[in-house]
Amino acid sequence: MAPLLEVRNLAISFDTEEGVVAAVTGVSFSVDPGKTLGLVGESGCGKSVTCHSILRLIPQNGHIHSGEILYGGKDLLKIPNAELDKIRGHDIAMIFQDPSSSLNPVHTIGRQLIESLVLHRGMNKTSARAEALRLLDTVGIPEANRRLGEYPHQLSGGMNQRAMIAIALASLPFLLIALAVLAFFGNSFTLFIIIMGINGWENYARLTRGMVLSANTHGYAVAVRSLGAKPSSVYFRHILPNIISILIVQFTLNFPSTILLETSLSFLGLGIQPPLTSLGQMLGAGRAHLLYSWWIAVLPGALIFFTTLSISIIGDWLRDRLDPTLKNR
Q1: Do 209 and 314 fall into the same domain?
Q2: I want to staple 113 with a disulfide (CB 3.0 to 4.6 A). Which of 33, 132, 143, 176 is the partner?
Q3: Is 101 a member of any domain?
Q4: Which domain holds residue 77?
């Protein structure tokens, strides 16, 4: 399978008063469909510049000297601006690092979110407002109806960041670029899990769309429509029961990956921060005690192993229980 995005030998520099400064040199990576890639490094190492260059958003004093950024078989560094504008925000969306400067201060949150829905998904304003409320609720903004009419300065930094996430998700992009999102959510385990869940939302969206399109042409769906059933009845009473079990099982099978992702980030010090704790932190702290207190590291590791294994077994059990064709086997 071809990569969704491929960056090859990217080199970027900036003109400053002190001379030319090399920001990125020889960076190469690829992102496969349905996968998540993290760029980790110290402040100033070029992570944000690399991400901005994907959509050609680097400042005027910046120069991309060499490299390729391939998306859909096209080099984003060479295509015309008009063609790139069709990709920005639609195919590739970005959650910027500083919401206070990325959100327009003279427009309400609702106007900026609805504008994205109208532009990229062709919704009318009534439908776009309803979808905007749903998106704000999804990212955890309370009193979404009231927040739609508020300006960025009336919201906290965390709420503005969540609004930025909602705007980015509004277009259902194929690729989502997030810059240091966790820094704006504070020390919250629940919000941390929400952010990790966002990384995999496109898998479920594509899986659901594919199954619905397939089931819609199946014999039972055609037969029901021939009897005069309304489209809503066909989808909710006949198609949905056929795909819901697959989605539930897929979620249970993907949940261990989320646990391992959280554990890995916390182990590296990039996830849950003290005073909260996680298995990844416990595992990391136990490394220094392996010689004389081995259980400090082994026990969290064993718990991670058995937890992920148990959830996978539950997923297999649910598959057998929810599929009527497998119950009597």
Answers
A1: yes
A2: 132
A3: yes
A4: 1-81
